[in-house]
Design a protein that fits this description.
- The complex is a heterodimer of chains A (258) and B (344).
- With 258 residues, chain A is an alpha/beta fold.
- Chain A has a domain of 154 residues: Rossmann fold.
- In chain A, a hairpin with a 2-residue loop joins β1 and β2.
- The longest helix of chain A is centred in the C-terminal third of the chain and has 15 residues.
- The radius of gyration of chain A is 19 Å and the shape is globular.
- Chain B has 344 residues and is mostly helical.
- Chain B is globular, with a radius of gyration of 20 Å.
- The chains are: A alpha/beta (258), B mainly alpha (344).
- Chains A and B meet through α2 and α3 of A and α10 and α11 of B.
């Protein structure tokens, strides 16, 4: 579905991503993990054509660099980590923008398919009751769900999520990942997401790309990549031990000893 | 606050149009010489039909037809154009303080017009429109310089950066204008006109040029209302939903430059209309450009006609430059918006 070959991105003289090659197939959820500054978000920016790069990124065999913005938006939906809203658009207005690429011309009215997609996206994300509310009054989680609904309204087949649970509390984190897991169950879809939380990557990812200083330290099945020899080398610590220590706080005996 | 929102049907446009028409006739009637509405209507009808008016209406006709009517027409069209340009720029840059005057575009356009007057610059195909073409070119050039500098300093184009660059550019344009005036003192009277901003002596020819420009530019901007909505949510978001951001940005910037350039070449620098009007209108109809652009167009016309009425009648028989009136109102609203945006 998505094939990245020899991708390199430079910011000045700094190589943010260096000769990266990965691929994502239908039904897969690729988790991109790694320490700060590893180049995780840059990979997503390159796929969404937000930065200039060398190498090739193909979607369904077509070079994304040669694909126009509207065609790209019909296939690939992007959910960013931050949304600063300046104007009081309603939730519905923001979600409706997701159908922009599906309009056939300047004068074309809203088609029934557009209306259906917007309604479905609002219902799917549980935003129907908030549809007329100003986005300036939403909580961080509601705002993130609004933009997720916009992405769903685009009817894409590939989702790119850049640290989607950033600034979200546990309830919204759980809701968001449950929604995306459900979305992925429809055949012909795939997800690529950048996450910091290795537990989330382990729980939801079918594949994992471990990045270190712009290069792929490991890429493959999540179970394979999440082995101590890869993680410990990249994070320069005993990752599994740290995770067990954290989880140990929730064991009944640990709770009792406190 | 309740707003008209999605239920913004034809009748709302009809109310805006009716209000504009009422203010238009009020402004034609009122002034240093007050003329009753019935006489005004008869004089205008006589002029349209090409027949002479009754003896009692001769004085009214000599005031309305050659002086007041073209002036109020030009004021309404300039107000509509500047408000439309302001609304489009505020959407494109996702910045409620963006306007021709705050960004320094009006100063740039004035510099272009002043240079055309001072050095007698004309264009072979447009011999009568030297100052107009120069004002449009300099408006576009100013916008590109200001946004280019702002992008280099701060990719997010934050309010503070935009305003700071706009102030610096305005000061720079004013300094260059002073140098030009020093070298062209024989054109001092004409040049002073641009710095004050006035539509005294506006003609039907001016009104026709303004109407044609507004018709074309308003059509272009209204056709890009969806794209402006996407930019107002965020440029990155616009790109992600499939907007060709480079093409749309260029089209909107050229259109806005044409609107500001033509307005400045005819009326001089009339500040803050594009800032005040869209802000007020946004509080009523919301930020959706499908509603905001037409509502700003009508409201801009009303705002400037009323400001012109104040300019003409406040110190009667003396007249204030219209730019002074709009700047006083605009400065207060500017502080109010800036204060609100900083608190958010």
């Amino acid at each position: 579905m998505l094939t990245i070959e020899h991708l390199s991105v430079k910011y000045g003289t700094l190589a943010a991503v260096d000769d990266l090659s990965v691929s994502v197939g239908e039904g897969q959820w690729l988790m991109i993990v790694g320490p700060n500054g590893a180049g995780k978000s840059t990979v997503l920016n390159a796929v969404s054509q937000g930065v200039s790069y060398t190498g090739t990124i193909r979607y369904e065999g077509k070079d994304l660099r040669k694909t126009d913005a509207a065609t790209r938006a019909k296939a690939i939906g992007v959910l960013s980590q931050n949304h600063y809203m300046g104007y009081a658009f309603t939730v519905e207005e923001v979600v409706r923008l997701g159908r922009y690429a599906h309009r056939s011309g300047l004068f074309s009215p809203h088609k029934a398919a557009d209306e259906a997609a917007v309604e479905e996206a609002l219902a799917y994300t549980g935003l129907k009751s908030l549809r007329k509310q100003s986005v300036l009054t939403l909580s961080g989680g509601e705002l993130q769900r609004t933009f997720l609904a916009q992405v769903f309204a685009q009817s894409p087949r590939l989702l790119l999520l850049d640290e989607p649970t950033n600034h979200l509390d546990l309830v919204y984190q759980k809701q968001l990942f449950a929604l995306i897991s459900e979305w992925l169950k429809t055949p012909g879809r795939a997800v690529v997401s950048v996450v910091h939380d290795l537990s989330l990557a382990k729980a939801y990812g079918t594949q994992t790309l471990l990045l270190h200083r712009g290069r792929a330290a490991a890429f493959g099945d999540t179970e394979t990549v999440m082995q101590p020899q890869f993680l410990n080398a990249v994070y320069d610590m005993d990752v599994a031990d740290w995770m067990r220590t954290l989880l140990g706080q929730w064991q009944p005996d640990a709770h009792a000893s406190n | 606050m309740n707003r008209i929102g999605e239920h913004f049907h034809g009748w709302i446009y009809a109310i805006f149009a009716l209000l504009t028409l009422c203010v238009f006739f009020a402004c034609v009637c009122l002034g240093s010489v007050g003329i009753p509405l019935r006489d005004t209507a008869r004089v205008i009808l006589d002029a349209i039909r090409g027949v002479p008016s009754d003896g009692a209406l001769q004085l009214a006709r000599s005031v309305i037809i050659p002086v007041r009517l073209p002036r109020v027409l030009c004021v309404a069209l300039v107000g509509a154009s500047l408000a439309l340009a302001g609304a489009a720029m505020q959407g494109l840059l996702k910045n409620p303080l963006a306007d021709g005057s705050t960004l320094g575009v009006s100063s740039g356009a004035s510099l272009g017009a002043v240079m055309a007057i001072a050095f007698g610059i004309t264009f072979p195909s447009l011999p009568f429109a030297g100052s107009m073409v120069m004002a449009i070119l300099f408006a576009l050039l100013s916008l590109l310089i200001i946004l280019g500098l702002a992008y280099r300093l701060d990719c997010s184009l934050s309010t503070n950066t935009i305003i700071l660059i706009g102030v610096i550019f305005s000061m720079f344009a004013s300094s260059v204008m002073s140098i030009v005036i020093t070298f062209a003192s024989d054109h001092l009277k004409s040049i002073t006109f641009w710095t004050m901003g006035s539509l005294q002596g506006a003609s039907y020819h001016n009104a026709a040029v303004l109407a044609a420009t507004l018709l074309i530019c308003a059509t272009v901007l209204l056709l890009h209302a969806n794209e402006l909505n996407a930019f107002a949510v965020g440029e990155e978001n616009a790109r992600q939903i499939g907007v060709n951001v480079r093409r749309v940005r260029l089209i909107v910037l050229i259109t806005v430059s044409c609107l500001i350039g033509v307005c400045v070449s005819i009326g001089g620098t009339i500040g803050f209309v594009g800032l005040v009007t869209p802000h007020m209108v946004r509080m009523i109809v919301g930020p959706n450009h499908k509603r905001l652009l037409p509502a700003s167009l009508f409201s801009g016309a009303v705002f400037l006609m009323l400001a012109d009425l104040v300019a003409r009648t406040l110190l009667n028989p003396r007249e204030l430059p219209i730019g002074v009136v709009t700047s006083i109102i605009g400065a207060i609203v500017f502080v109010f918006i800036y204060y609100r945006s900083r608190r958010r």
